[in-house]
Amino acid sequence: MVMRKLDSRAITPAISLLAVAFSSISCFTSKPRPTPIPIGTAGVIYRANDIDEFPSSFYDWKYDPNHLLLFYRGAWEIIAAEPVIGLYDWRTDEFHELKIPELNAYNSVTYDFSQGPDSRFIAYSADGEIYLLNVEGGSVEHVTSGEDPSISPESSRLAFWKMDEIFLIDLETLEEETIYQSDKIFKSEGYSGSGCCLSWSPDGTYLAFILRTDSIEEGKRTIGESIILVNLDTQESHVVSEDREWSLPAWSPDGRLIASVQNDMRYGSEIRILDPFNNCVVDRFRTGPISHVMWFPDGKEIGMIYFSRQIYLLDVEAAFGAPYTSLACK
Fold it and tell me: What is the pLDDT of residues 66-75, one digit of tens each?
């Protein structure tokens, strides 16, 4: 083999061309991003308590500002370990385990849990069947077939998914009605969709939720994630916002706005305040990695779950420059 010495005069122009090429690519691909405000910013974001982490993994938090729903699936290697579900009072660091007979140790079983108003009821699904747990009495009642249940603000109805449709069931009469079908909005060749994260408006007249879509149109595949709003009286629905990695939509106390989290592995999390009726992003606030938000009843604070293990509180007026009642589309 003959080794040849490289001529630096030939290399220099090549390197220059590569530098120009990469510079051009950078100009087209880089986007200016606001610097995230760190978790724990005085006057804006602060720890709710001094607990290092929850006793179990976070699962749900809505209606009741003082109690979180925690769930531990159990380790794969511990075949006999039963799943643990319970309510966690973050003010006192107390965990109240809930005894649910249908929970078992088989890892093939899929669960969805939903916290009810004042944490009096927990709705959950196990392998496609929906149940309602009375927290105080401990009784469990089978309701219907479906997944991802969500209890209404007055605790008299249950919204849930069945395939790509949303149903409502009256918990007294057990009468069901279909209120949403995903193909009403997304129509394309090879479409498929899956929904989650049903969130009731405070007056119980609207549902906001997330629809993940996978479609092929003219040979091009598109994967999307949208927040959808449906009017429960008219069954009319529309897309509020299209993006990726949304969290459970959290309604403001007056039912005008929605807070949600848009996550980006490179840039942290962005809390977006949306007006679901006028389809605009009212404001946004970038911070460290959070997975869930919950708007407190007085509207002054938004609770945030940090890495599924800690609670931080966001001062709404300090973060967005005005009380939540003054936030609106610009």
Answer: 999 998 766 5
The reply to whether CATH 2.40.10 applies to domain 248-330 is yes
Q: How confident is the model at residue 190 (pLDDT cuts 50, 70, 90)?
A: very low
Domain ranges of the chain: 56-151, 248-330
- Buried (b) or exposed (e) across 113-136, using 16+ Cβ within 10 A? bbbbeebbbbbbbbeeebbbbebe
- The vertex-204 CA angle with 127 and 259, nearest 5°, equals 85
State how far the Cα of 42 lies from the Cα of 291, in Å rounded to an integer: 21
**The pTM is what?**
0.80
CB 126 within 8 A of CB 110: yes
